[in-house]
Fold each of these.
Amino acid sequence: QSVLTQPPSASGTPGQRVTISCSGSSSNIGSNTVNWYQQLPGTAPKLLIYSNNQRPSGVPDRFSGSKSGTSASLAISGLQSEDEADYYCAAWDDSLNGLYVFGTGTKVTVL
Amino acid sequence: QVQLVQSGAEVKKPGASVKVSCKASGYTFTSYDINWVRQATGQGLEWMGWMNPNSGNTGYAQKFQGRVTMTRNTSISTAYMELSSLRSEDTAVYYCARRIFDAFDIWGQGTMVTVSS
């Protein structure tokens, strides 16, 4: 069961900026770094952002992450059709012997 | 290139066990933890546990304690996840993923496990 809460959906037209929120608690986001994963239909998740705001090599700088207290957010600027996917936030949780928790997921639709 | 390649789809009867493999290549297998994540159709991601390929140490999500076993064979750079006492709710795609820092940077392609009588 997901411990991190995300909005189920978000949408925008090409070129717009879309923001996805991720709400947690003191034992997960409040104590550890946040990662974001992108999952295109029918494929494995892909690491998009790690350590709150770092992009792995090859991830466009249109994607950015931030964290404040027990919440985090992912922003997609200059939205493109290929950004249509599911997005998950995630973090380690200190309350249950090192459990890794995922967000509920957000479906981004490009209108 | 760095990759994780998983075994093929499985169909199992309720009560049976399944063992999924995850073969690493392109990096030193024993240098990074392997984690397992599953996803039921149309649902979100669910973390199952981790294994340190060097020591063999493991950590499992409480939900799977007693039913899951994660092992490895370092001679062939392969990690395994075995889930026992299968029930219909275990029908899902199972992924292995490499941990770097606090994130999972490389994922296997996924293995579909179907539990059906």
Amino acid sequence: QVQLVESGGGVVQPGRSLRLSCAASGFTFSSYSMHWVRQAPGKGLEWVAVILNDGSNQYYADSMKGRFTISRDNSRKTLYLQMNSLRAEDTAVYYCARDSRGYSWGQGTLVTVSS
Amino acid sequence: NFMLTQPHSVSESPGETVTISCTRSSGSIASNSVQWYQQRPGSAPTTMIYENDQRPSGVPYRFSGSIDSSSNSASLTISGLKTEDEADYYCQSYDSTKPHVIFGGGTKLTVL
């Protein structure tokens, strides 16, 4: 059974950094591309980034390119999202997701950017 | 990037059938698979349809998906509506030119 558990969210001041983690279990982590998707309060889903199964390539939504970095450690079965220069509009629940026959989703972690 | 446009809200009575549309703004809807997600308040989304018309195990037969090239749109149809179907529904596809993932804006389904 696929399990994805995000962590690392919290309250952070504008301009600061935060790193999210996603611990995976129940499947062969190194065989799958992994994504981050976010959802601002009361808003829809917004795709953030994807990393290929071997970490060889990463792709980002235009609005996050240059500030966010997706990475993974297949030996630890963990996905990461490094977020720099955070803005108020980055406030959202951040989900990690495995893309296979539709997404399998974690429960999300809330990031609040506020002074 | 193309956009996926969904109605903001739909409502229907229990036992009836509702269809939620998802229209692709450019490029063919058949070029990339379409997925549908259900999200109840306070919960993470769950997959209801993948690859246009495939149902994951555990998803009731009442949920079905299709694509229509003539209208360049995908549809999620829910028959025999139940109050528990009340949720937000999102369509999702891929932009293989970048590659990026595209979500529709979501549709709030009210079952009253």
Amino acid sequence: QSALTQPASVSGSPGQSITISCTGTSSDVGGYNYVSWYQQHPGKVPKLLIYDVSNRPSGVSNRFSGSKSGNTASLTISGLQAEDEADYYCSSYRSSSTLFVFGTGTKVTVL
Amino acid sequence: QVQLVQSGAEVKKPGASVKVSCKASGYTFTDYYIHWVRQAPGQGLEWMGWINPNSAYTNYAQNFQGRVTMTRDTSISIVYMELSRLTSDDTAVYYCARGGRAARDNWFDPWGQGTLVTVSS
């Protein structure tokens, strides 16, 4: 069962906006609005940032936003801050014997 | 507040089994699915399966079918994940995470603190 494809790394300067892509297929990302995003700092537990493509849980900064086009979902971080330096993972529901799949992960570096 | 607390770290020999617990509090235990996700050292997240605490119905990822068993005890709001026939490739941090009310709900929040399972001879 293959993972969703994310860029290995993305970087930006403080205050800039960056976008992380998450590419799947019509059996997962493209077929359902069940995409979520997670932030994980080193040695820490993953934190939910976005669910159902573009919804933010209460308490999550509005600097984080999600979208989807075809088989690719995206997470945009605006007004990049030093604390945003972390690993980011997407996840999608998948119509297969394995119901959920994560992305390969993206390391965000704040320059 | 909603909280998931997992059992402590384990060291196992190849071929053995491990059973990790996840105690839920702060919400109605039977209303939400519990998922298990693992993360090998320096690697990404891997979904292992879920259990419906109300019905005890389970769904396992293909990679773990035949080796993983998820159970629950509603009297004490605990979910268990047992993985058998361990190899060194199973060395990882194992997380439980609360899902949604429906089987397709793809969000995991909150997560337990993680349980490190080390498989070594």
